[in-house]
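Let's do one together. I've listed all components of the complex below, 430 residues spread over four lines.
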Amino acid sequence: MGASRQQSPQMAKELLGKGVLIQEAAKRLFMSQGYLATSMDAIAGAAGVSKATLYAHFKSKQALFEAMVQERFRANMGENLLPLHLGDDPYEGLLAVAKRFLGMLLAQDALAAVRLVLAESTRLPELSEAFYRSGPARTLQMVATYLDYLHQQGRLHVPDPATGADLFLGQLKGKLYLKCLLGLQNEASSEEIERHAAVAAAAFVASCAPVIPKK
Amino acid sequence: MGASRQQSPQMAKELLGKGVLIQEAAKRLFMSQGYLATSMDAIAGAAGVSKATLYAHFKSKQALFEAMVQERFRANMGENLLPLHLGDDPYEGLLAVAKRFLGMLLAQDALAAVRLVLAESTRLPELSEAFYRSGPARTLQMVATYLDYLHQQGRLHVPDPATGADLFLGQLKGKLYLKCLLGLQNEASSEEIERHAAVAAAAFVASCAPVIPKK
DNA sequence: GTCTATAGCCTGATAGAC
DNA sequence: GTCTATCAGGCTATAGAC
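Okay, and this is what the predicted structure of the assembly comes out as:
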């Protein structure tokens, strides 16, 4: 047995091999400091292995980065924005979606991922594309589907669900999202999320309802 | 006189001294590649001077970066979002504001600045703050002032102009902004900007109008 | 597979001639 | 002020012992 041993907080991780430990350390560091500012020495140290071991699992820094990113996007895929039961009231349904959306968007992890993707977007265009498809595009699609449902049911007037979803999600972000992304607001309070979600949902319903008098 | 000479495209710049040349080269490179990926050698080369000259003007890489950023923000301050004559129709006024806002937001320069600030937001929190104050905060303020004016005139129902401005500008960004920021859409066409601005302005007016009967 | 040690390069910053 | 030449240190990646 070797002399020094770094015990992971969760023993189960040991069983998965060091590749996982390395990826998790890499994820933490890449996310918080960016690609260039994160050295392979630092990752090796954080994972409790030597640099040579690290290169035995990943053939280069770039390869490690890409493996970490793919893992992150795979995790994204699992999340579902729409609650199982949306009820019949458009406002209540949109409010529920809005709260879920904001909670997901303002999580520290998600914010760090966006910062990272944007920082590397020039160097790695395919990273931007993969991010967009796995995140924003899917969210827009889900909301558009829901809006179309409401439209078909006659509960809301949304002749163009794709554009409607874009407007609604845009409203939902607002300055709150920007401030969190910039790190100016360390964590959004639940009350703030609720308030913002309610305002946006009400505004959207209001903008869709009064279509009839036109014509 | 030295043997080799780098002629700037504009002779006038020579008169301003090399400090300006250096800052412009630094701005180009920092903006397009980020802080860490830009070396002092590269800046010196792009500015047509030696590295020692560069250090004669700026005492460190960090100092050069901050000078460049401050210059960028100073330039920001000059822009005014509101047209001189907004007219009486709320929709037309908001449409004009929307088009200006999108044009400003989607300029390559502005996109690069946002990417840069976000990338460095962890390392330089005060940079985030300066950016927010010089850009988004001022924009929100201007739009809120205009919305308050419309409200006072009774042309639109906006009891909370600050929140209204946030909703309107959020709507205005939408996926178009995100795609440009990610570099997935090299340049937004004028038609796309006009269409998006019109949709957002119409939606905002619709969400505000029905509360009080027009006239 | 895992370690220690190091190669080879690039970086930010400086010394000294002119 | 501007240059050439260079330093000291950090970086990615690899060699070789075990």
